[in-house]
Amino acid sequence: MNDYDVIVIGAGSTGENVADRARAGGLTVAIVEDELVGGDCSYWACMPSKALLRSAAALRAAQNVAGAAEAVTGDLDVSAVFARRDRTVHDWDDRGQVDWVESVGIDLVRGRAELTGVREVAVRDADGGERILTARHAVAVCTGSAAFMPDIPGLRDARPWTSREATSAKTAPSSLAILGGGVVGVEMATAYAGFGTEVTVVSRGSLLSGQEPFAGELVQKGLESLGATVKTGVQALSAHREDDLVLMELDDGSTVTAEEVLVATGRTPRTHGIGLDRVGLTDGDWLQVDDSLRVRGVDWLYGVGDVNHRALLTHQGKYQARAAGDVIAARANGAEIEDAAWGRHVATADHRCVPQVTFSEPEVASVGLTAAAAAEAGLDIRVVDYELGHVAGSSLHADGYHGRARMVVDETRRVIAGMTFVGQDVAELLQAATIAVVGEVPIDRLWHAVPAYPTMSEIWLRLLESYR
Ligand SMILES: Cc1cc2nc3c(=O)[nH]c(=O)nc-3n(C[C@H](O)[C@H](O)[C@H](O)COP(=O)(O)OP(=O)(O)OC[C@H]3O[C@@H](n4cnc5c(N)ncnc54)[C@H](O)[C@@H]3O)c2cc1C
Ligand SMILES: NC(=O)c1ccc[n+]([C@@H]2O[C@H](COP(=O)([O-])OP(=O)(O)OC[C@H]3O[C@@H](n4cnc5c(N)ncnc54)[C@H](O)[C@@H]3O)[C@@H](O)[C@H]2O)c1
Known about the structure:
Number of domains: 3
Binding site for FAD: 50, 143-145, 306
Shape: globular
Number of helices: 16
Structural class: alpha/beta
CATH class of the largest domain: Alpha Beta
Organism: Terrimesophilobacter mesophilus
CATH topology of the largest domain: FAD/NAD(P)-binding domain
Keywords: FAD, Flavoprotein, NAD, Nucleotide-binding
Distance between the termini: 64 Å
Protein name: NAD(P)/FAD-dependent oxidoreductase
Largest sheet: 7 strands, mixed
Cofactor: FAD
Mean pLDDT: 98
Helix content: 25-40%
Bound molecules: flavin-adenine dinucleotide, nicotinamide-adenine-dinucleotide
């Protein structure tokens, strides 16, 4: 069969969910994948990176509690961590995800897809065979993003790691230079410093520059406490490999020398050579979409997940995918379209309600707008900060707990516009904040959401008391 209602290009976490929703809406669906079903998140991003981070975080957590600390006196078993990572990614075998695709009645087509015309896709397989697929209703491009490589003289020839090599390495190098102080940079610095690798982070700005400034400051201290060197406000001028070492020359006159260099300087869309130019778009661009994830100017084409550059996160891509799959089915079936803000067919939360956890040392969990972003958006805000370590639950959670929380209140509407927590194990505090931000829960009603004693969630009470 070559004629479907919907063709999904890319079977990452996003593409799988678009296909699932369109299929649940009664449509026939083909999904095309030229690597592993499950995509980056399962095999080269979220899952392996968190597997590399988790064991050392668990060990540090035990070391932070007297009584437990005395019981854990050994070092991290680094080879066991890599083995656990291998199990987490199923040894890069996608059989389980293929089984799921087949079980829900989606046709998997292996090969590289390219748009060849209106609702037409050519798929070339590894043996050079070609198959032409047509879609009656829609094509969804879910091809994700790849590591961006800055144009620094000598860098490419120095055979740098990208996040792929960092998450799939079989052993830890003795030294690692990391270019970029964003999320990938600080997470991989945390992981490899935990393995005993001599880590140097080179960041042209402060760490985690899109977050509240105190997040980057606390993470810098955390990385230094793990033995990493952090250089901020520094640019790389050139790089080259000499024997088994990479040398990176910096604009402060210094040179960083390491066994490997990881380039963690953001992402570029995987849209080269997928035929965008044949449908009136520009090859290699991020896809510009409306809130129903439909590509602007092409009414049968959708761009979902990283490829649309709205929020490069798995959970946000899957959220978009649920809206996109449902709206594709609704449009095909002539059903009512719910595309007003917060309707089921639009990804409204992408704009000002995106949650994210950075699994660094310490963790950073945030949702919504930072104080700076809210002020820039013209909101009348009030900022409330509180030391997380002063909450009874935190002091029990770990000895000497130190962290910080910030609540950004939209004073006009008296709702929370943004929330940031930085500290050990703050990840699970985030969903309550996301509900408050998305639900636009009035501050006065939040007062009645009483956190249990003695949990870290009492940070909510402290922030609200400070606000009052
Ligand atoms: C190191 C790292 C850690 C991360 N950790 C987290 C995290 O903890 N939490 C989080 O929310 N996000 C995390 N992210 C971001 C997350 O990985 C991405 O947002 C997510 O994977 C994007 O999903 P996607 O489906 O849009 O793209 P992808 O997962 O990249 O899927 C795209 C798929 O399309 C396929 N494809 C591409 N072109 C074609 C073609 N022409 N034909 C056929 N198939 C094609 C690819 O092979 C791929 O399988 C991390 C990213 C990195 C780099
Ligand atoms: N836990 C998570 O949720 C998680 C983990 C990893 C990655 N991600 C996602 O993956 C995406 C990619 O992460 P990332 O860290 O690569 O990107 P990023 O945008 O978070 O950080 C990139 C950093 O590189 C710097 N940079 C860019 N060009 C540079 C240059 N020429 N020289 C020096 N520095 C340069 C930027 O200033 C920035 O600090 C992010 O959007 C992130 O949301 C999420």
